[in-house]
Each structure stands twice: as structure tokens, then as C-alpha cells.
Amino acid sequence: MPFPMMTLRVLSTIFIVGLIPSVAWGSGVHSLEPFKVDLSDKVSHMKDLIEKTNLPENEVNTGVGTSLGITLNALKSLKDQWLTSFDWETEEVSINKLSQYTTTIEDLDIHFVHEPSNDPEAIPLILLHGWPSSFLEFSAIVEPLRSNSNGTSTSRPFHVVVPSLPGFAFSSAAPVNWTVTDTARVFNTLMVDILGYKTYAVHGTDWGSLVAGELYGNFNQTVRALHLSFIPKTPYNREELAERNITLKPEEELPLDVFLEWQKTGTGYFQLLSTKPNTISLALQDNPVGQLAWIGQIYIDGSDPRRGTGPSLLTDNEILRTVSLSYLSGSFASAGYIYQQNNGAFNQEYTRAKTDAPLLFSGFPYNNGAWPDASIAMIGNHVNTTYHDFGGHFAALDNPPALIEDIRKIAAYWES
Ligand SMILES: *[C@@H]1O[C@H](CO)[C@@H](O)[C@H](O)[C@H]1NC(C)=O
Ligand SMILES: *[C@@H]1O[C@H](CO)[C@@H](O)[C@H](O)[C@H]1NC(C)=O
Ligand SMILES: *[C@@H]1O[C@H](CO)[C@@H](O)[C@H](O)[C@H]1NC(C)=O
Ligand SMILES: *[C@@H]1O[C@H](CO)[C@@H](O)[C@H](O)[C@H]1NC(C)=O
Ligand SMILES: *[C@@H]1O[C@H](CO)[C@@H](O)[C@H](O)[C@H]1NC(C)=O
């Protein structure tokens, strides 16, 4: 049976799946298939294209550092490593250590990792990634969260679920006008109707935090805790904070500066994807080095400048793994549409979600956003903020031990 580690809670699911290939719940029929990543037949074409890609000999603009986007040197170095030290087959073996499945919900194929704990006291948890990321962002934190290895006396293990957002990796492209609200509904179906969890906790970052916010506000019976490393609202600038009499803690100064700089000089990709996604999508869908430049810049600029040194796992190899998944799974174009489909969703409408579930926040210095407690309290039942002195936008890669510790704090507030 493909489900040796599932808990008692979902035994009925296993039983029915064992008898017939699909299970009917409510209005939908959900099949559940074990899934392994196998894109090896596409690797030689990718390598061929990488090898044949000519980059300029010299920087066109010298002396501008990283201010105009990814540098030629950075791109050349990544490209060289892609051809010499990077090995997709090795990555596949490691990715396939995670138990993965696909199911169909509302006509979309949804790919997800499901790593349940053996402990009946474990808390069900869904981890939600953003763009240009993927389920891989959480690879290093799944097992520690599942097993509570390194846990404290108050922490508990989790049943860990990591779906691919529609359009990303192996989940179907989202149809026209599909929004994060729709994704939230589909993921609640995944957790409750398909995996059988009556209640669960949510962690989100980037676009995943917008999905998380929708889950938190729209499913207050099933979503019983929320942890975020990115608040799904545009931060207030200094004038807007002053108008509201909100003062910053010292730890909030740097991430606010990072946000304001990003807002001034770093949103080109955001504008393009929000308005004319076809142009970049079609240009780069079959261009691995192009995808590397486009995606690599976001990882390099979005992470702690100490990227790749402990505790950060955001190495060049990690960037290459992410871009390879984007290219090989053919999801570059479909992932980018999340911006256009949710144009305007990242805004300053701080409204209180209709829920009493606890909301916890983790702040990382090089994230592009600072949200003082007073702002966070405007969107939910804010109970805890923890700041760290290392890390950026991709916390699960930039500072995994800190994120693990903070997600474990959910246990202190968990009631269901
Ligand atoms: C998508 O939304 C736009 C704007 O609201 C609307 O004009 C269009 O008809 C919608 N398309 C579909 C296929 O629903
Ligand atoms: C901010 O503080 C000032 C002075 O105490 C007060 O007059 C004003 O009403 C406050 N504004 C808000 C939005 O609370
Ligand atoms: C949960 O949501 C329902 C429906 O929106 C609402 O009536 C109820 O007040 C909410 N519960 C809490 C505690 O906010
Ligand atoms: C809440 O956050 C603070 C740090 O701001 C931390 O000291 C405290 O232990 C946290 N509470 C829980 C329950 O983890
Ligand atoms: C586990 O604990 C060790 C020692 O306290 C620490 O160095 C490491 O970062 C921890 N790892 C995780 C994943 O929490």
C-alpha cells in the first residue's frame, strides 16, 4: 500500500482508496495517486540549451553592482555550476525521499507532500510557498517538524503537508481569474476532505501567505492557528506609521528599509507579471539560462547577504535546483500568472479576519517587509512575534532552525 505512514485518523481514507481507485466526498470525486518526480528525460535538452547559451564577454554597465539586476558575473558563475557541479538526478533522489501524491480537486491536479507523524497528538500543518519558489523551499524543515527532533518540552510533532500552488511544479495551471481565495478553498478540501484532518495549522510566506490569510479568514472552524513569515499586506511606510502612532522596534528598521528600497527599485518583475505575463512567460519558457537570470535575481536579492553560510541553506545549488524544477516541469509560465490573477491583492486593506485562531509572526532582517505588532493585530488574533538576526524572504532556506522553532510555538496556543 502506498500509505504506510498514515495515521488512524485517515485510515478510512486508506481503506476506501484500497478498495476503489477514487473516493467520493461531498460534491467531488478525489483520486489519490502516489507521485515521484521523474523529469530525467528532459535533462539533456536543458543541458544542451545551457551549453549553447552565449552570455556577453563583459558587463555592459560596469560599476553598478547589483543595482540593475543580476550581475553578469553572478549569472556566469551559476551557469558554470549548472553544467559542472549540479546534478539533477541526485536532486531527484533527494526530492523523492519526501512522500508525494497527486489528487484532483475542482478539476485541478494538485501535487503535495504528505509526511504524517506517528504521534496521535501531532498537529496537522500545511506549509504554503510563494513565487518564484516551490514546495522545495520547505524540504529541510519537513522532517524536523514531523518528528519533533530537536524539539523542546513544549513543542509537538506535526503531520506535514506541502502542496504545490496551482500553476507551480506538478499542480495544474490555474484557470483564468483563479485567485488565492480559490486556492485556499481547494487546500481546505485537501486537508479536511481528502486527508481527513478536522482542524489544522497553516504556515505561509510570499504568495503562500496570501493563500494562508484566505484560509485563516474563510475557514475558522478548521484553520486553528496561523504562522506567517510574511504578512499578506503592504507594509506602512514611515509616514503612514507615524499617522497611526505606530512606532518601530529596532529589529523592524532594517526590514522596513529593505521593503522601501524594493518598492522603489525592485518591483519591475512584479509590474510585468501583474500586467503582461505572457511576454516574459513565452520568452523564457524554453530558455533555462533566461529563467536562471529572472528567478536567480529574486533569490539573490531576497535573501540575507550571508546567503549559503550557516544557518542558511540558500546555496547556489539550491537556486539551480529551483530553476531546474521550474524549467523541467514546464511550470515557468503558469506559475507567474499568480500575479496577474491576483493583481491588487497585496494592498494596505488591513481587515480583521473573522476568527479567534492565534496568529504568530516571525521577522527576518532581510525580508522585504516590516509589520509592527500593531499592524499584525489589525488582521487577526495576533499572539506572538519573534525576531531573528539572520535571514531574509525565504526563511525556510535562509534560517531553517529559527523558522522550525517558531512554527513549533504553535503548540503553546493549540487547542483543538
Ligand atoms: C475574468 O475577469 C475579467 C475581469 O473581471 C472579466 O472581464 C472576464 O470576463 C473574466 N473571464 C472569465 C473567463 O471569467
Ligand atoms: C496619535 O496620537 C496623537 C497625539 O497623542 C493623537 O492626537 C491622535 O489622535 C493619534 N492618532 C491615532 C490615529 O491614533
Ligand atoms: C467564523 O466565521 C463565521 C462565518 O463568517 C462567523 O459568523 C463567525 O463569527 C466566525 N467566528 C469567529 C470567532 O470570528
Ligand atoms: C513569544 O515570543 C517571544 C519573543 O518575542 C518569546 O520570548 C516567547 O517565548 C514566545 N512565546 C511562545 C509561547 O513561544
Ligand atoms: C538542533 O539543535 C542544535 C543544537 O542545539 C542546533 O545547532 C541546530 O541548529 C538545531 N537544528 C534545528 C533544525 O533546529
Automatic annotation (TrEMBL):
Top-level division of the source organism's lineage: Eukaryota
SUPFAM superfamilies in the cross-refs: alpha/beta-Hydrolases
The keyword Hydrolase belongs to this UniProt entry's keyword annotation: yes
Swiss-Prot/TrEMBL GO biological process terms: epoxide metabolic process
GO MF entries: epoxide hydrolase activity
Active site positions: D206, Y339, H393
Entries under Pfam families matching the protein: EHN
InterPro entries assigned to the protein according to its UniProt record, in alphabetical order: AB_hydrolase_fold, Epox_hydrolase-like, Epoxide_hydro_N, Epoxide_hydrolase
Epoxide hydrolase N-terminal domain mapped to chain residues: 33-138
UniProt keyword terms in alphabetical order: Aromatic hydrocarbons catabolism, Hydrolase, Signal
Cleavable signal peptide: 1-26
Family to which this protein belongs: Belongs to the peptidase S33 family.
The protein's name in its UniProt record: Epoxide hydrolase N-terminal domain-containing protein
